[in-house]
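Lab notes, practical 5.
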Amino acid sequence: MDEDNVRRFKGIKVKIFLNNHRMYTGFILSVKDGTAIIKDKYDLEIPISCSMIGLIEPCREAEDEG
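Output from the prediction step:
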């Protein structure tokens, strides 16, 4: 996936599906030099090459019940 498409999802919670069948959930902090920096639920910053990203979709937030 190219950098411009990845930048569209910057700042919102997303699911990122990689070409090697792995999935990450978190926020895209930055995109530069062909690498996206993802912050996951454990506050780890994970660098992912944009060429490894197959699909990005926004997460649906759980609604409060009751």
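Observations recorded by the TA: Residues 3-7 form the longest helix (5 residues). The longest strand covers residues 23-32.
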